[in-house]
Amino acid sequence: MTDTASSIDIASLIDIENGRLSGKIFTDEEIYEQELEKVWKRAWVMLAHDSMIPRKGDFLQTYIGEDPVMVVRQKDGGVKAFLNQCRHRGMRICRVDKGTAKAFTCTFHGWAYDLAGDLIQVPRQDTAYPETFERGRFGAVKVPRVQYYKGFWFGTWDEDAPDFEEYLGSAKYYLDGYIDRWDGGMEQVAFHRWVLPNNWKFMAEQPTSDMQHSEITHVSAATVLNKGSDAADRTKRGTNPTGRQFFSDYGHGGAWYGEKGAEVPNTGQAMQRYEAQPEIAEMIARRLGDDREIRGHLNIWPTFMVLGNYTIRVTHPRGPHEMEVWAWTFVPKDAPEDIKDSIRRDVLRTFTPAGMFEADDALNWEEMQHVLKGRVARDTGYLYQMVGAPIQWDEGCYPGGSSAHVFSDNAAINMYATYLDMMTSDSWEELMEKRAQHRMGLAPVSAAGDRAEA
Amino acid sequence: MTVTTDTQTTDIQTADIQTAGTEIPFGDPGAAARPVTATTDRLTALLADIDPAVERALTRFLYEEVQVLDDWDWGAWLDFFADDAMYWAPTQEDRLSRERSQRINDFRTSAYFEETTVQLKQRVDRLLTNQAWGEEPPSRSRHIIANIRVTKGLADDEYVVKSNFYDYRSNGQRSQDSITGERIDRIVRDPSSPWGYLIRERRVLFDMSTILNKNLSLFY
Ligand code: FES
Ligand SMILES: [Fe+2]
Predict the structure, then answer these.
(1) % pLDDT > 70, chain A
(2) ipTM surpassing 0.90, yes or no?
(3) Which residue from A51, A394, A412, A414 has the fewest beta carbons nearer than 10 Å?
(4) Is-cis flag, bond preceding B137, omega within 30?
(5) How many Cβ atoms sit within 10 Å of the Cβ of residue A55?
(6) CB of A106 shorter than 6 A to ligand 1
(7) Is B103 part of the contact surface with chain A (CB cutoff 8 Å)?
(8) How far apart are CA A351 and CA A232, in angstroms?
(9) B122 and A345 in contact by Cβ < 8 A?
(10) SS3 content of chain A, % helix, strand, coil (to 5)
(11) Which ligand 1 atom is at minimum distance from the Cα of A110?
(12) How far does the CA of residue A249 sit from the closest CA of chain B (Å)?
């Protein structure tokens, strides 16, 4: 059934009921190969934002998992995506990050592809190829499903995946809180890209669930950051912070501090003042409803991440021991220049490779990955037993599963439950069925039963 | 202006420098004996603008600066900067040759650093909390500065100093990385500085388009 028959029983490594994971899922090569097949070939991945490729012929090179993908603005204004691999001998068709083009010509033997990825020219075709050679059959491999959502373009390799909005599920409500606040939409103003020596799931887990690490990991940054600059005062959250954590069916999750109207956003002070202006507050309330003061961390599984200060990122896996972080800074397009500048500077000083928060996360993940080289360490197991508060479903204005405590492992364990279901399903149909059965805190978790059968 | 050579001191005018001089073939045994006015080439013109003692002082200034960093004396490092200094590092991306001019991002767009002196001090203060876990225990670093080129700036007593850097970092038991790039510094003479000079502006250009290091938690 699967390309990558694994000798590893993944279900024996993930114990949802007891909140325990084996370190092997972060280090094993076979498991990683299976992830490329079962997770990355199947999930929806963010490809681009309108503002990255505004005009026809604008393109960028990105990835879905390890597969390089071209994302191109078409003449009709739409966006197409195709594998960045020449059908002749497999050379990378395009080797720059972005630009504007009329066509893409492979630098190996000169096969040329148009903006849609169709093969339009083969040197010496007339004289050296048989008449039966059909160019139409050798276009670049298309990303079969590309969907637009509020300025962003998402793609998946899986023809049978549910529509993107269905995949978002209850996470739509929370994602909209970040990306749909503004009548004029958003635009990308900065881009950072770096490599971290750790498994991709470590970072995915953090915006999904782990607000608590911030108190310890980021204590140095939180202490100095608000002094003498426009940054938010991240020390104001007090000793007993309130907030909420949520999770939804396909592994998405997030958490935020504060309660409705009494929240401490992550953005700088200029931005906080801007959003407090009556006409701006009115716009946000009109677009999102009164209750949507949600500005913390969010991850759309597998790795589309949104942080409250408008850093938006996708991480690409690079083997079990490495990943690439692609991080963009977004601003509301219609905001005044000083507001845009405040957001831009706040992001670059906090969540970029030179960011004061980011620097310390990297250290943790690098050390964790290194420890996993140990044969005993790999089997010790990790604990996800922080309850936070009881799980509620569709409570009040909060769709999905959530709990009334900012610190909890629920969303992380839900993420790994989704991961387990993905890794053990051969189709989206099977996966959707399993996910419907495994709604944490609602129906009895039957992962243990599945394990016994596996 | 005055140019000093081994054999003589010659006053020359800027206009003289710009006129084409006599070609001196490489290895010409008579070359050393000829007056310096004969070598009216670009390099002589560049050097003629800068007092060799100033060039030496600025070079030493930059060596001292990186030594302070490698000594983990991050607080003292701030003494190298003017109060209104700007320290910034643009990002760059891979572009086609024909779009190469857009490769490096402009000031106030995409950057790794864009720091006033106040903000640089925040970064230093963070390291000095002893809880900046990325640098606790601190890395061993080695900043290597080379290709230092001093030219005259726009204002009096202001110099534009370009240099290349290779910064090596080792941290923990066996983690290591390094990064290379170019710095363009605007440095002013300032007697209030313990060093006699202050950095007004530094642009750091990293050569990587994807930063292959886990972070940029030190100074460059
Ligand atoms: S590999 Fe692309 S033309 Fe041959
Ligand atoms: Fe963090």
Answers:
(1) 94
(2) yes
(3) A394
(4) yes
(5) 8
(6) yes
(7) no
(8) 14
(9) no
(10) 35, 25, 45
(11) 3
(12) 32
